[in-house]
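# step 3/5: fold
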Amino acid sequence: MARRKITNSQAVCLTLLWGLLCYYIIANVEKITFDIAFAIVASAIIVFVPIYKNIRNRPKE
């Protein structure tokens, strides 16, 4: 099954939403623990690796 391509505007929206979520998490905790840091790093990998792969595999224009 072919995947749909991610447009630039979709990539920007995903990045901004991820950033807002991280800001919300960091702003509302008393102390940043390993669990919180791990969750942020893991979510970054989940969000940005597919975006990077999609942008990298675009045909050169």
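# step 4/5: annotate
The first helix runs from residue 8 to 27.
# step 5/5: archive (pending)
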